[in-house]
Amino acid sequence: MRVALCQLPVSPDPAVNLERVRKAVADAAGQRAGLAVFPEATLARFGSDLRAAAEPLDGPFCRGLSGIARDEGVAVLAGVFEPAPGGRVYNTVVAYDAAGVLVAAYRKIHLYDALGQRESALVAPGSEPVLVELAGLRTGIMTCYDIRFPELARALAAGGAELIVVPAAWAAGLFKEEHWVTLVRARAIENTVWVAAAGQVPDPADPAGGAPTGVGRSMLVDPMGTVRLDLGPAPGIAVGEVDPGVTAQVRAVLPSLANRREDVFGKFWKPGSRR
Fold first, then answer.
1. Which of 55, 72, 144, 162 is catalytic?
2. 17 near 10, Cβ under 8 Å?
3. Which residue has the higher pLDDT, 34 or 213?
4. What is the pLDDT of residues 69-85, one digit of tens each?
5. Active-site residue, 133 included
6. Rounded to two decimals, what is the model's pTM?
7. How much of the chain is in helix, strand and coil states, percent to nearest 5?
8. What is the Rg, in whole angstroms, of the alpha carbon atoms belonging to the chain?
9. pLDDT tens sequence across 99-125
10. Tell me, what DSSP letter sits at residue 174?
11. Other C-beta atoms within 10 Å of 31: how many?
């Protein structure tokens, strides 16, 4: 399956962002991608009025994503915000199949209360990992700060994920870019799984001030940890091949998942289980 990493600048205006998504998916379709992965907060960037921007999953932005996926015949995965109780919002990743059907919605579990930021002041946490079939691959979903929590990636891999996608708005900071690259590769290596991580870049036409917008560095990493794609710091779209045959080859010689000691550490979450 061919996956497109869509590394976009994100505006405070959802209409601007939806048009950027439309153009990017058309580009991805022209490169025969089966899945287009967009950043966290594609609806509206951090630093804008997220309460005002938030909408239900049948709202206009999500309907637009659905129509784009259907029109281009490409599965689409992107970050949005939903209204949440108590005046907060959910930081949600939605996934549409190539027919435009909403097949998954993952609410970010780990909120970025670190390094001077307090995401939980505005965002309510989710509580359930998500696995979904997308473009023929069993796909697990993580969001940005989730990448620092290996137990989530391991649960997704143990649940059968062939690909883990990571929409992000990874903010700049001391050692932050090094952490991002290291963590994305680590999640692929320790779980012998493909990882497709798509990040935001700053929008030069609409500076964000002090709000985090993302350093880019969208990556496709294979189950041995080889970086197949790295988009660097500029806007762009790149398409790479996710080959389950590579996963099988790696796991044949490096069976770290099979060698897990469930008798010592217990079983991981499985789809449909109660935790």
1. 144
2. yes
3. 34
4. 999 999 999 999 999 99
5. no
6. 0.96
7. 30, 25, 45
8. 17
9. 999 999 999 999 999 999 999 999 999
10. T
11. 14
The burial of 252, by beta-carbon neighbours within 10 Å (0-12 exposed, 13-18 middle, 19 or more buried), is given as exposed
Q: Which amino acid does the sequence have at 31?
A: Q
Question: Which is the catalytic residue, given 40, 55, 72, 82?
Answer: 40
Q: Would you call 134 helix, strand, or coil by DSSP? A: strand
Terminal CA-to-CA distance of the chain, rounded, Å?
32
Instruction: Give the list of residues 6+ apart from residue 80 with CB closer than 8 angstroms, or none.
Output: 41, 42, 43, 55, 57, 61, 62, 92, 93, 94
Q: Name residues whose C-beta falls within 8 Å of residue 131's C-beta, 6 or more positions apart in sequence.
A: 138, 139, 140, 141, 156, 159, 160, 161, 271
> From the candidates 62, 72, 82, 108, which is the catalytic residue?
108
Residue 108 appears among annotated catalytic residues: yes
- Using one digit for the tens of pLDDT, what is the confidence trace for 251-269? 999 999 999 999 998 887 7
Residue 203 banded pLDDT, cuts 50, 70, 90: confident
- 162 part of the active site: no
Stated as kind and residue range, the H or E segment containing 20 is helix 14-30
